[in-house]
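note to self — DONT lose this again. spent like an hour looking for the file last time. sequence + predicted structure for the chain T wanted, 157 res
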Amino acid sequence: MIKLVASSVVRGAQQGQSHGGVYLIDLENQMVKQTIDWNTSGIDWQGRGWDRGLRGIAFDGEQVFIAASDELFAYTPDFQLIESWRNPYLKHCHEIAVFDRTLYLTSTGFDCILGFDLDKHCFNWGMHIQAKSVKFKPVGFDPLADNGPLMLNKMHI
């Protein structure tokens, strides 16, 4: 049996309406089940997409990780919330991926990539991507310190 997990962003949603969710797609039976309805009211409504919707999905063993704009969520395989984490440098997250016991999150708002330790459940690595003429310059920073990058949102990471 093949099943896919997909997330959506509803850019035209108004406050109080659903602005995305997570769906389990059963290809064999041609069925779709919404497992999470993302209708939180505590989001920033400016811009085209900004805080709306759930943007990234990654897996680690029996945990499903899903990113919102500024928060990382861990769910069971049947989408029961386990825990969530925030970081001051996570804003407008668009993608996540797991590699070598670290979950990497893009943070478009801060033009950076953050690392989340899957064993210790904490943010432990940051790389600010700076534009230098026609080249890019990666600059490491501590995502737990208060001297990281400014929220400039110059690049679409």
